[in-house]
Amino acid sequence: MYDLTACIVTYNTDEEVLEKIINCFQKLKLNFKLFISDNSEKDSLREFIKKFNDDRIEYVFNNSNKGFGAGHNAVIEKLLKEKIDKQENITKYHLIINPDIFFEEGTVEKIYDYMEQHPEIGQIGPKIKDPDGKVNYSCRLLPSPFNLIFRRFLPFKKMIAEMDYKYEMRKYDYNHVMEVPILSGCFIFVPFKVFEEVGKFDERYFMYMEDYDLCRRIGEKFKVVYYPEAEIVHEHGKASYKSRKMMIIHSKSAIKYFNKWGWFFDKERDKKKKNFLK
To answer: Is the pTM of this model over 0.90?
Structure first.
């Protein structure tokens, strides 16, 4: 059984970016398997992956782009099928990670050890920093339509800033371990059994919100914990705010999320918001 399986979904991903994160994995002291789940039109990454000559890295070509969640589900389903076929557990933990992540040696091991001591946790996330060292506010309350849709059209900057302050839980100390409603989807570390209990990604979301949806389902049965003792670097930008196309995709996913969980009447959201904003 693996200590950890991990999956990176790619779509026309730059090879230099991918090489950087693969190098991070190759330094792990855990028994792991890394899957590259490729949603690109062509399997051009196949030869690139072969160059690493590492049987701990497996390339999966999906031959279509059905979305971020579908790309990860392809690997989760593969592992679940293998478990059934072999009648044994394949992996203890599973990591869903973006290709533009970098982490130092010992980071994943630190998370692994913490999870071993806390079986009540269903999802854990590290402290996330920008390349310049700035800490991301990666914890969230359960979102409302104002947080994800209407804020884009509000002209009142002060009101938006106040909304973000609460929504991103900025009053909390991001240097301390804390239980939270939602974690960033760029690094989702879970016990593999979670997928058997709460299900896989909801493929109705092509991109965006599938991580919130999964995290919310996990939070119904397990603890969701922010763990700043481990740190990663995320070399990203808020693409949905920079690109009109991405903004439209994000808005469509947000609409699907609220259609599923409730727009203005969401008891669980109201309950958690009340508890965390005391």
So the answer is: yes
